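Consider the tokenized backbone below.
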């Protein structure tokens, strides 16, 4: 497979992940707004929901972090640096990029 096809596939994969994370963040925010609506009887047991709020906050923070990594990977892709290790500048292993498409280090330099 040529480099153009690899770049195109990487972009498609990253954009799909970005869309999925943005949709997840939208659902979390919509649920939070619904739950906090003053006239919402569905969420009347507020004390029982504090744990869920904490869980959703953790999910939201993780999704935002991953979204930032995806945006940075797209920037590297546009700059022609996608798939290169930030430490040694060698190519990151294809199987590593398949599993972690926003990886910035090869297996040797992964911490």
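A designed sequence for it:
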């Amino acid at each position: 497979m040529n480099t153009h096809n690899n770049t195109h596939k990487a972009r498609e994969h990253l954009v799909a992940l970005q869309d999925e994370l943005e949709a997840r963040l939208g659902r979390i925010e919509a649920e939070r707004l619904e739950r906090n609506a003053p006239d919402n009887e569905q969420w009347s047991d507020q004390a029982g929901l504090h744990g869920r709020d904490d869980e959703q906050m953790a999910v939201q923070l993780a999704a935002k972090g991953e979204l930032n990594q995806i945006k940075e990977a797209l920037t590297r892709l546009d700059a022609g640096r996608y798939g290169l290790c930030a430490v040694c500048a060698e190519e990151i292993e294809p199987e590593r990029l398949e599993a972690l498409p926003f990886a910035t280090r090869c297996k040797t330099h992964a911490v």
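DSSP finds three helices and no strands in the chain.
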